[in-house]
Request: fold
Amino acid sequence: MSPRPGAVAIGLALAAAVAAPGVAAADRAKIIDPAPAAPSSEPASKKDAEWAARLAPRKPLRQVDPDALVGKAPAEVISFYNQWTHEWIGVDVTDRGVDPELADRFLRCHFTNEPTDMDRRLLSTVLDAARHFKVDRVNVVSGFRAPKYNLMLRKKGHAVARDSQHTKGHAVDFWLPGVGTQALYRWAMSHQLGGVGLYPDSGFVHVDVGRKRTWTGE
Ligand SMILES: [Zn+2]
Reply:
């Protein structure tokens, strides 16, 4: 595949290398094709618990002081990190391009490894949020969830909807480092595409392109 110039796949596990200040976008525009992660053989409930323990913020993240944003330029390249696959994509916001195939693969079901056609509005909304809060990194908690994986989660007693928007490629769960979940939720509500869910304990916000509604989870 040959991604457009704006869509840069960075298959590195090192946040520091990707987000290093002063590294020109062009210098990072080298495609390192990450090998797809093997489908998980672990029970999802155990993995979920492990990840929750390792990744969920233990306490509410610091709120961004709106005054502190004045005078700070938004990042030109925003790094998206997938917490499940440990993959990165770098998105050049001046070009606003996210190669659809790359985005679909990045947001694939981590359990079955299947991608789907993700709604294009989701990543641009997430990108807008990162631009608004002037952060150069987005942590993706969940994108596409294959129906059979969603069903398995339900059978294991997880609080996932039967007909989840995630199973249609219509939802993304994410958080922005350094941005309070409440602040991100308020922003998402003011730019509401469809559903917006707040998960204050887990520390992320859900956005989808379904019917406009809102809720609070855990
Ligand atoms: Zn969600």
